[in-house]
Write a structure and sequence with these properties.
Length: 164
């Protein structure tokens, strides 16, 4: 029961030992502990600042990457547009050249056809004239094979010449 009701001597010596331990801790341990806590607090603050700085740098890099990506997309779109325009220009030029060549070939073909047509018509006229002369010659020989008919023809021709 004595532990439940401590005596004055026990309280005195306990108080002296507590104050001694408190003095020793205050003199030697607390400054070291406070210094360690301060250093720990400083290192945590530095780590937070470094993390914040790294986060800002990451955001800047991400923005830079996004900007580069947008520029690359814009450049790609520009190149595709230029390629499409070039393709359309080449196709249009090829169509124009083909149309010009086709018109030129058609004109030459028409001219050739007209020339051949005229040559054929001339040849046909020459053949018709030759055949007409041959036929007329044959008819005249047949008709003028007798002397009476020759004299009669001569008389008719002379009458015609006098009448005109």
């Amino acid at each position: 029961m004595e532990l439940i009701k401590p005596s004055i001597g026990l309280i005195f010596w306990m108080s002296i030992s507590f104050l001694t331990v408190l003095f020793i801790l205050g003199k030697f341990a607390w400054p070291m502990i406070m210094k360690s806590l301060s250093e720990r607090e400083q290192s945590i603050a530095d780590a937070l600042n470094s993390a914040k700085k790294a986060k800002e740098e990451m955001a800047a890099l991400q923005a830079s990457n996004e900007k580069l990506l947008q520029e690359a997309r814009a450049e790609r779109d520009n190149m595709l547009r230029e390629a499409r325009d070039t393709k359309d220009a080449i196709i249009a030029e090829a169509k124009n050249k083909a149309q010009t060549e086709s018109n030129k070939i058609l004109a030459q073909a028409r001219e050739t056809i007209n020339n051949e047509k005229m040559a054929a018509i001339t040849e046909l006229k020459n053949q018709v004239a030759t055949m007409s002369i041959d036929i007329a010659e044959k008819i005249l020989r047949h008709e003028l094979s007798r002397d009476e008919k020759q004299k009669s023809l001569m008389a008719n021709l002379m009458n015609d010449v006098n009448l005109n």
